[in-house]
Design a protein that fits this description.
The protein contains nine helices and nine strands. The protein is α/β, with parallel strands linked by helices. It folds into two domains: 167 residues, Rossmann fold; 105 residues, GMP Synthetase, Chain A, domain 3. Helix 6 crosses helix 8. The longest helix is centred in the C-terminal third of the chain and has 18 residues. The chain is globular and about 55 Å long.
């Protein structure tokens, strides 16, 4: 039996649907999906099986024009994921077409090692007419020599099977990299923190979600089979702490209930979740917070 295995990097602008596609491919929720841009901060890997091939998806942060240190670390992580991968899939939104951001990504692809296979996946195809889709396909393939082009809807699942089969055939011959039943190589502590952060992101508005981070401080396995999980939500200001807590603690209570319910479903057992909010003015400049998120902390403007 010939087995194949390898890493597939999904790259694209924020909100292009990379997390949705990862979750669709893997068949489980390993990457947080929200309507807000830049929610994926780390290179979450989801593992999918297709025949005798094991597909390891690297769901990179969205590529955008970085302004802050955190932005720069996220963009560096995205390109790092792409250059390390066996196959790259550029995901673009059908209704947005070739934006300035997509053009910057196409420029960046030129700098990758020669011979690297890059496929184009045009997502959200249900939002445009067929003739517009064909015109966009032609325009993109004139701008870059893609190995293959796929038209998909990550949300509805259209075209995803064809993409997965193609990827499975393109991966190098190799023993499987993970046990067959393992869906993600992220530590459970980080997945749990991401789930809570997703609930906060959905609940809060404006800039605040990008000024907070969640860390799993303790994970205790109990004798009755349940787990006690203690998490800290770091915010940069006292005012933000009040927003996260909400009137009479209503916001944090709702977030905690939603995150706990999802964790219980994900783990298949009872979870006791305890959230604490702490003000840490400079967490965006602390190396320790970055390593918790799986990102590289760079000094100065690097």
């Amino acid at each position: 039996m010939t087995t194949r295995a390898g890493f597939i990097a999904l790259i694209g602008e924020p909100n292009a649907g990379k997390s949705t596609l990862t979750n669709r491919m893997v068949g489980a929720k390993v990457s947080i999906v929200t309507h807000k841009v830049q929610t994926t901060r780390t290179r979450i890997r989801g593992v999918a099986m297709e025949g005798e091939s094991q597909l390891v998806f690297v769901d990179t942060p969205g590529l955008f024009q970085p302004r802050r240190r955190l932005d720069r670390a996220m963009v560096a992580a995205a390109w790092g994921g792409a250059s390390d991968a066996d196959v790259i899939v550029l995901l673009i939104e059908a209704h947005r077409g070739m934006t300035d951001g997509v053009k910057r990504i196409l420029d960046g692809l030129q700098d990758l090692p020669r011979g690297r296979k890059v496929a184009l996946a045009i997502n959200k195809i249900d939002r445009v007419k067929a003739e517009d889709l064909l015109a966009l396909t032609q325009k993109m393939n004139e701008a870059y020599a893609f190995a293959e082009t796929f038209m998909i809807s990550a949300e509805r699942g259209h075209g995803v099977d064809a993409l997965r089969k193609w990827l499975a055939a393109e991966l190098p011959e190799s023993p499987w990299l993970y046990p067959e039943d393992q869906i993600a190589d992220l530590p459970m502590r980080m997945i749990a923190a991401e789930m809570t952060r997703e609930k906060l992101t959905l609940r809060l508005h404006q800039e605040l979600p990008y000024q907070l981070t969640v860390e799993t401080e303790q994970w205790e396995e109990r004798k009755d089979g349940s787990a006690r999980i203690d998490q800290i939500i770091y915010v940069t200001r006292d005012g933000h702490k009040g927003i996260v807590l909400g009137k009479k603690g209503e916001t944090i209570k709702a977030v905690s209930q939603a995150a706990r319910a999802e964790l219980e479903e994900f783990l298949g057992r009872k979870v006791h979740l305890f959230l604490q909010v702490k003000v840490r003015e400079n967490w965006l400049e602390e190396a320790e917070r970055y390593s918790e998120m799986g990102l590289e902390f760079k000094d100065g403007n690097a």
